[in-house]
Amino acid sequence: MTVKENRAFSEMLAAAKSRLADQSPSEIAEKAHVFFDAGHRVFHLSSLGEEITVHYPSYDIEQELDEWHHLVILHYLDMADGTPMEQRMIPFGELRDGLVRGGGFDRTCEQTMARYFTKKPLENLQMVCTALGASIESSNADLCAVLPFLPQYPVTWKLWLAEEEDEIDASGRLFLNSSADHYLSVEDAVTVGTLILDKLRQQYEAMFPGIKLLHIIFDSV
User: Fold this and answer.
1) How far does CA 205 lie from the centroid of its chain?
2) How far apart are CA 57 and CA 62, in angstroms?
3) Distance between CA atoms of 29 and 44, rounded to whole angstroms?
């Protein structure tokens, strides 16, 4: 990360902490569906199968996370308004103000899936998803995994494998719950999608080290 990016990140982190400082921790916990331990002054939540501890009032995170993952968690705590999740899934491009940035991520995600993940054994991908705390669901896709990024912010991964006899190409996409705008901005959503794809890559490499994965680049998003 460059000096300019480090400065931008530090400014965004400071701004997120400043916004949270004016809010009641119990109200934050209620709206974000996380647990606040008033005695120990910490929030408890889970993300992709990992238990996360957020200290109050510093909003530092105990576990070692990617710094953008840390920032997104704070943005989630700040933005969450308690809106119930709905039964409808949407692509990133259908987020509020998501036509350009969200749509760009949808295209990049599809390209990454088609180029890489669709060539992996289905049973391996299911194991990777399960290791990240995902539930495997029945759907019209060959693989449908609901990845629990945050309590009210699941991300659904659908993967369709190629069918040569029907001349159907392999493809894959990530979807959000249609309530997602009540919990994170479109910029944060793209960060979430990027983190998930990278986490899937890292988990695959860890579980199946004999297979080298192509690193995911999102500069075009």
Assistant:
1) 19
2) 13
3) 9
Eight-state DSSP code of residue 161? -
Assess contact for 181 and 219: CB atoms under 8 A: no
pLDDT in tens, 38-49: 999 999 999 999
Grouping H, G, I as helix, E, B as strand and the rest as coil, residue 3 is helix
- The pLDDT assigned to 213 comes to 43
Query: What is the pTM for the complete model shown?
Result: 0.90
| Residue-wise pLDDT tens digits, 151-172 | 999 999 999 887 655 545 678 9
Quote the Cα angle for 156-97-5, to 5°. 85
The CA distance from 215 to 112, in Å, is: 10
In terms of pLDDT, which residue wins out, 190 or 2? 190
Q: With bands split at pLDDT 50, 70 and 90, how would you rate the model's confidence at 125? A: very high
Contact 41, 54 (CB under 8 A): no
Domains of the chain: 3-79 (no CATH), 89-207 (3.30.310)
The residue whose two tokens read 């991964």 is 157
**Confidence (pLDDT) at 4:** 62
The span from the CA of 104 to the CA of 190, in Å, is: 9
Distances, alpha carbon 205 to alpha carbons 27, 60, 63, 124, 127, in Å? 40, 29, 21, 11, 12
Instruction: Name the amino acid, one letter, at 221.
Output: V
DSSP 140: S
Write out the E strands in 64-126. 89-90
